[in-house]
Amino acid sequence: MPRRWSKKKIARYLEKEKGIQLSPSTVYRLLKTFRLIERTKSIKQKTKQHSKNRRRTKTSLRARYPGEVVQIDLKHLVLRGVTYYQYTAIDKYSRLVFAKVYEKKTSRNTKLFIQEAMKYFGFGISKIQTDNGTEFMDKYATD
To answer: Cβ(73)–Cβ(104) under 8 Å?
Structure first.
């Protein structure tokens, strides 16, 4: 067999000349298992391996005391065809959680939720981390 045959060409040769039916992937796996070939790394694989060595930097805010950073998110709940909205607040320092369900997702409900969360937590909130959804913008709240 010539040196530079592809796995597809080897599979076709085995089928025509020897009557052995193997898929190209099986041919490759066998050649690799018996160490008859060495797979060279493509540029993409080298880049991928290189990026694994880099440390990933954390982009989230760090809290040093309760109430410094509170994460707030919203989840859509559909019950019997009616959509409800669950607001959830998590204090990053103490890991305290507060959640409440509303019928509408509005900036006004978000404001009410934050006020109720502060009462529940028992401390003020310095920073709020959100996903910048429309319910977190001050477009509709007028108070």
So the answer is: no
Q: State mean pLDDT over 122-133.
A: 84
Longest dimension (CA), the chain: 84
Asked if 102 and 87 touch (Cβ cutoff 8 Å), the reply is yes
* Amino acid at site 76: H
C-alpha dihedral over 31, 35, 38, 44, to 10 degrees?
Answer: 70
Task: Please give the mean pLDDT across all residues of the chain.
Answer: 81
Three-class HEC string of 67-94: CCEEEEEEEEEEECCEEEEEEEEEECCC
- Are 120 and 98 in contact by the 8 Å Cβ rule? The answer is yes
Report the distance separating Cα 21 and Cα 15, nearest Å: 5
pLDDT at 91: 92
Burial of 62 (0-12, 13-18, 19+ CB in 10 A): exposed
**Full set of structural domains in the chain with CATH:** 1-40 (no CATH), 69-136 (3.30.420.10)
SS3 102: strand
